[in-house]
Amino acid sequence: VKKNYYLSPNTLDEALFFLDEHKSEATILAGGTDLIPRMWDKIICPSCFIDIHQLPLDFVRYEDKYVIIGARVTHTQVIDNTLLKKHLPLLIEACSEIAAPPIRNRGTIGGNLVNASPAADTAPAFLVSDADLVLHCMGSKRCVPVSSFFIGPGKTVIKPGEILTELKIPLPEPKTATKYIKLGLRNALAISIVSIAAKIAIDDDGRITSARIALGSVAPIPIRAVEAEATLVGQFMDTDLIRAAANIASHEASPISDIRASAEYRHYMVEVLTRRILISLFEQLRYEDAQLSKLGDRNVQAI
Ligand SMILES: Cc1cc2nc3c(=O)[nH]c(=O)nc-3n(C[C@H](O)[C@H](O)[C@H](O)COP(=O)(O)OP(=O)(O)OC[C@H]3O[C@@H](n4cnc5c(N)ncnc54)[C@H](O)[C@@H]3O)c2cc1C
Asked: Is the dihedral of CA 172, 176, 182, 188 positive or negative?
């Protein structure tokens, strides 16, 4: 007779021991907001739960030019965190777009990433933030850049016996602007049709020194629009550059049609939202540093 287990470890070591003992049988339970609906729908039928709600993985700390966020931090805890308000407002914007307060109170950032939905709201934010994911198993740990973490819808590089413990995010450089935009069928409790996060850094002259654009819901996994990013680096922001980058980003997307939107509409909206987000970043940078004469002179119209 097959036994079912519910295990609730108090420490990471204990959790790793259980994970090692039950390997591919083991299913980690965090907030349960993805897992439980999938069980109701009989998509999965786990026989061994390892509930991590008692593990001390709900911290946010600052360490040597990095912000470290525990995997069990809920979306509400992100939104309320003063350190993140200061250093990672982009993640707060993304978490504020998730579902509604009851889900945000239970759902964790670790669960959002490991669930590996192409529509996961925190994924584009972590992609543009160059986050590293720390994965522990019995006796060792490894660091995986979030850009290599997703390998397909619902699939990640996590191996049986491993647990995501924390995310390590480098502090943004000065003169950096970030933003997240989510397009859904309504303003709350909606899975995204297209989502986009972007980050731009400029030098004292206003030249773009680094650019990140990440897209959700328009490919089998959350992606970076690397060619659009490359178009921006080394340039001054202006209307033509924004149009060009937005057009390239749209070509980098490979969306499907589903119940929420057609592939054609998603392509079109990637272009529109990329334009909007870049204009918004430009306005943020100009507002934050009125001394940037080169930026001030540039002509960026609402397009
Ligand atoms: C009504 C509703 C609305 C929603 N709306 C949105 C939305 O707008 N945007 C959005 O992005 N998501 C949404 N979600 C999905 C969900 O709430 C989030 O993805 C949430 O962050 C999942 O976190 P969790 O802690 O509940 O994960 P769980 O359900 O506990 O786990 C999800 C998966 O991750 C694994 N896992 C969890 N933590 C770890 C870990 N530390 N290490 C290794 N594996 C782990 C679990 O084994 C499981 O496979 C919605 C869900 C519901 C029910």
From this structure: positive
The span from the CA of 216 to the CA of 279, in Å, is: 19
Contact 196, 168 (CB under 8 A): no
Q: Is 30 in the pocket of ligand 1 (CB under 6 A)?
A: yes
Tokens of 231: 């178009």
Q: Is 32 in the pocket of ligand 1 (CB under 6 A)?
A: yes
Q: What is the pTM of this model?
A: 0.95
Per-residue CA distances from 148 to 3, 12, 80, 187, 224 (Å) = 35, 24, 29, 30, 11
Tell me if 71 CB under 6 Å of ligand 1.
yes
From the CA of 88, how far away is ligand 1's center (Å)? 21
CB neighbourhood size of 184 (10 A): 19
Distance from C-alpha of 4 to C-alpha of 8, rounded to nearest angstrom: 14
Pairing of strands 132-137, 66-70: unpaired
What's the angle, vertex CA 150, arms to CA 56 and CA 45, rounded to 5? 70
Question: Measuring CA to CA, how many Å separate 240 from each of 189, 199, 235, 247?
Answer: 36, 19, 11, 11
Is ligand 1 within 6 A of the CB of residue 27? yes
pLDDT digits (tens, 9 = 90+) for 257-286: 999 999 999 999 999 999 999 999 999 998
Is 103 near ligand 1, meaning CB less than 6 Å away?
yes
Torsion of CA 215, 88, 173, 216, to 10 degrees: 0
Atom of ligand 1 nearest to the CA of 98: 8
pLDDT digit string (tens) for 205-253? 999 999 999 999 999 999 999 999 999 999 999 999 999 999 999 999 9
Q: Ligand 1, atom 9: nearest CA belongs to which residue?
A: 98
